[in-house]
Amino acid sequence: MTQLNPLTVAVQMDPMEGVNIAGDSTFHIMLGGQARGHRLYHYLAPDLTYRDGRVLAKARPVKVQKVQGDHFAFGEPELLDLGRDVDVVLMRQDPPFDLSYITATHLLERVQEETLVVNDPAAVRNAPEKLFVLDYARFMPPTMITRDLAEVRSFLAEHGEIVVKPLYGNAGNAVFHVGQSGANISALVELFNASWVEPFMVQAFIPGVAQGDKRIVLIDGEVAGAINRIPGAGEIRSNLAVGGSAARTELTDRELEICAAMGPELKRRGLLFVGIDVIGGEWLTEINVTSPTGIVSIDAFNGTDTGGMIWDAIDARLAARVAA
Question: Which of 158, 174, 205 is the endpoint of a domain?
Fold first, then answer.
């Protein structure tokens, strides 16, 4: 694809100091953008300001390199008008998907007519990972969202083993496997209800998770690649952040069916970079739209350039805007 002129790109993400460059997808994307000549800025979500009808960000120009501990260099802070001064905003801060996150989507939505925001902030707000996935319940394991202990007990009795997890958690945090005995289930429900105001998710346990939890990346609705994440010893969680390991993989017919079913809707919503999770080659569990990861491992196993695919998709979106 023919590249557009070098872009000015503002990246809304977490602090650069904490980035693990060996596996961080945002850093990988930034390296690719810099290689194309794009001018990069970094800012945090709290750096956003709305004033006189404009959305501003106190941002710093940044250069990146693949040297851990010396992986970035900032310039002097600048006050950017995100509608007038930049071509693209990458909304890439990690969850929690809380009111701060939601507020940032509302602010960024106000620049969408002037600047491309990836992923579309309104679509991100309306597609939390463990709720948007319910649109594709036909591909999911038996699932319940509740705060009610009696409902959880009934669900456990029906399915034998279950997994309980927070509705807006990430990176495998606070994911619990409950066996047939239901030991401590009442205490666990009490803990969830005391810790979070929203309901939690309960799913039938899928034994196939021992063989891996596949992360499939879709770029503008098309499959870009996948990795299989294998749980560590004594774990059901396969997230790389909690000790899972990555392995090369191919997609099953069922996984291709899942991707084909949701791809057009992802593209329509402006969800350009999405990661879905599938257990045992057939059970969809999440659609990750806030800050998907996994592309570094995918590229390492497959010899692909997923970051480049993302920039190509951004160029295509910008070209379509110009044509319109």
Answer: 205
